[in-house]
Amino acid sequence: MNEATATSVRWADKIGRRIVRYVLVLIVSLWFLHAFTFLLFFLLPSPEFGFAGWAGIDPSILEATRQRLGLSGPWYHRYFLHLGHLFHGNLGQTLTGYPVSQILESRLRASTPQWIVSLFMLIFVPVPLGMWYCHRKINGVQRFLYRLAHFGFIPQFLAAIVCDSLFIMAVAPFVPDSFTNGIRVGLAAFSGVLLPGAILFIATAATAMEIIRQPYVRSYEALGMSPSRIRLRLLWNVVRALRPLLGQIVLATVTGTIFAELLFGIPGVGHLFIESVRQQDFALMQSYLFFSGALVLAVSFAQRAP
Amino acid sequence: MNHRSKTQTVLMVLLGGIVSLALLPAVIPPGDPDLLSLSQPPSLKHPMGTSPAGIDVFRLSLEAGRRAGLEAVLAAALTLFLGAIIGGTAGIKPRSWFDYLQSVCARVLEATGPLLPTICIAAVAPRLEPASLGVVVSLFAWPPVATVVRGEIIHEGERLYVEAARSIGVSPFRLFVACYFPAMLARLRPWCFGLFSAYVALFGALGFLGVGNGVERTLGFLLFDSLGHLRGEPWYFIGLLVAFLVLLGVAAPFVRSLLSVPSFDSPDFGSSGERVKRVLTE
Amino acid sequence: MNRRSILFFLLAVVAAVPLVSCNRTEKLENAAQRRLVIAVPADPVTLDPVAMQEVNSAAIGNAIHACLIRLDPKGKIVPVLADAIELSPDAMGAIIKLHAGAKFWDGSEVRVEDVQASLQRLKESASPLKWIADRIEGFTKRDEHQLQVRFRLPEPDFVKLMANLQAAIVKSGSEKQPKQPFDTQVIGAGAFMPAVGQMEPGVAFTLKVNPGFPQQGNVETLVFAVMPDTQNQLEALRAGRVDIVRLRGPAIAEACVLSRGVLKPRPVFAAAQVASAPASELGFAVFNWSHAKLASIPVDDRRKLLESLAARVPRQALSDSLYLGAADPATAIAPPSTVSGQQSFGNESVNFKLTTPIKLTLLSANDELARQFATFVAPSCKEVGLEVEPRFVEVPKLVEELLKREFEISTLYFEMPVAGIGPWTMFFEEGNPFAVFGEPLPGVKEKVQAARSLVDEARRNQAYAEIVSEISRKQVTWLPVVSRRTVLLSSHRAEGLFIDACGTPVWSFLRFHE
Questions:
Q1: CA gyration radius, chain B
Q2: pTM of the model
Q3: Residue B41 and residue B232 in contact, taking contact as beta carbons nearer than 8 Å
Q4: Of B120, B227, B277, the CB nearest to A165
Q5: Nearest by CB to C23, which of A167, A182, A267?
Q6: In chain C, what are the domains?
Q7: Whole-angstrom distance between the N-terminal and C-terminal Cα of chain C?
Q8: Residues of chain B with C-beta less than 8 angstroms from the C-beta of C391
Q9: pLDDT for B152-168, tens place per residue?
Q10: How far is A285 from chain B (nearest CA, A)?
């Protein structure tokens, strides 16, 4: 076996071990997350009358409702049943009798346009703007933008409120009706990603300004590389340095989505979570909490090898 | 006194004045509804107008801001305390079972964040008093503080003088008081502002969603209520929004960093960004 | 133009595509498909007429289920599934003459057996409104389209009672089918029927026209779009995505202005029209005297406290500001539309105050209207020594705390689905499930039963009025405040808005304006 092949084999072996470790640690963490969400809702007092309205006065109807919703029986039975069902994609039933998985799926479809726009805004705005700071001298516009970005650190619900009120009072009455829906989705996405976007931009800019001062960059300049090529080369280094932020960016986007959908009336998963909170629909709340946590866990594990 | 320090002084005086107004209910008592002045626009008598229930919006904002501030201080203190205890214990005995357990718990809690579980709990158990809500929130929000404290204690523990102190038999308590605690305090000082601001935002979000006990006079809830009067009484919404932004401005650590940001041309430029990154990635 | 500029331009175009592609020409689609969209604030709980307890379920229920008859705002009978209901002179029996050819959603014909089964089912149900059918003793089928009903006691209001949604006619045996979401296994005969696979909770409930409904309109699809936020509803109406919005409380002031005493839409909603009608509805505060904090107040002082409070609550100001005049001050335990001018409280104790103030929690629903209402009541309570702090909870939690009697003071709105003054007494009848929200008073039940049996309408109404007056003078639980009117904001595409005698919009008669 020659050296190149041996190197490739060692590299493949290393990556393979990383992947296996990543998956194992992720599975264990997901199990802990499931246990946490189960425990949380097991310990919370389940509303009785909210399940069955007036019929909640009738104990037999109440018990039948509890059984239908999987809320009766000893805790260990309920836990392992819930875990087993999870593997089969059965997330239980909502108060109204719909399968939770079906509801989540239909609401995900409603959230998709906003998420696409959010993703676009998160990838193609803060990072390229931050890479613009990969320069030894910063001009006045860059300084202003950097300071302005700090005002993005407003609470997400506040950002959603401001964007919604702007839309209602200043945009919708003056824009042709055929565009209002698109603008509404765009503003909703913007309000949801304002905070994570500001974090990402400031971190990218700071990292870029730090990296540009590294000695090896001088050698790029000495070789005659243009500033844009240097930026492109350093982009991967900057992105790697930002990996620890990924999990929190995703979490911030998830919570931002909740307020954006609530205020803009988008019937997506975030809106669904708030409805389930108001109706005290445990199955939905638990599923949302678990899946949003799982998403953040999966992303945050990518930041470094476990 | 140079231009930057003059600006800083003026801003700090302004902020101090607003904070004092909010913290002294005796000076401007909470508003009582005036049913003869329902939904009045801004005037000399009511500088920010009146709400649809006849309450002066300025007083309403002050009272709500005061509540938000007090709740945030309580929750921040609880979180710092809990995070310090857990992180401190893990840092003193790194790689022990407790350290691994807190690490896994921290990962799980960081994955959900403090907001979502608190919403679930506060919605189902709505009789939570602000103190209880603060406890609940701090139960989910300790991981970042614990991580920072743990890191600092481990780092401090590796220092030569600490090793020397350990080797001559200094008790763990004295070690903690003399070495770890000051280091912890130095690292946690900026966290006080950050947590306060974060909790103002978090309780505002909870009030906005209408969960938790006593939400009716919170800024978040009032903001939510004011959205239903955008066309009829826009001053109600604008006044509350301004109040909320001012409250955040008082607390935001980034205002401080803005006030003290060095020249862009100096090697220290990016310190605020570095600080942000450091705070968020630890 | 260099490569970078072209790249940025292309990126901008790619960014704009999702925004523009999110637009659907909903207005054009709605027109082509003769589709009307109604905004509702929340999902229904059930679509089984016998189990419906709240307004969101009733909103959709009124479209998919049909009663034998309906009552217009003036009380005139409008035939629906029945051409006529003839009452015997002694009110001990009635003959229901079914409309020939009326069909259920599944195409099967509405038979007298279905009418019999529906009324029997209501009588045997757990519904708090089962008293509507409790005087029915038996049925006799006279022919394929006539059913004779016998009563064990005179039931002169039988015709009016049949206008209630709880008495909607459903297909016999369908309730025993396997449970479907929202109980849609219960098959109705309304103007519309649930579209298969298009009932999306939290999003929209799409209904298709039922070709077997007797009064066919030209609306082919009716959509109930779930929009919890009033501003979203109004914005959707303005943009043409929604056709009908029911305005409650602050939403009235948000969407309308008073012009010479008449409600008109704001200029931004210039293309819409306002429809308003009296409703059998009451907003009131209810006191739980059995709670430890209130139990300390002597029994003799309770009535005085209510009188003093009643004199202070600014009913007219509330009506003018919160409802923009679309409400009437209420002073009796039934709405002003049923008992005009009746006063519950005298003037002897208008200056009464508690010697020691008591701190209380005012429980209320967490919606804009209820919040505003509670905020109006709270200052008056403070003036009499009750320092109330409002607390807003979601409706399921509110119902739970009310039923468990865990509240101190609560503000409620109640929409009576049954027309007339009599039904309002059920909050004060012993043994009635609704008495948990009121105060069972001895003797009321017997008097109501006696009044209900009076054949002469004038005497019957007089008897009910006297009972209500007596209850109003004796009870110490309710503080009536205001009675709202039903206000609908609709686009020009929606015609034929029918608001019944209770103020409930009935969607069966909607027409699409071509």
A1: 22
A2: 0.84
A3: no
A4: B227
A5: A182
A6: 34-44+182-277+486-512 (3.40.190.10), 64-175 (3.90.76.10), 279-484 (3.10.105.10)
A7: 51
A8: 126, 213-214, 216
A9: 888 888 888 888 888 88
A10: 7
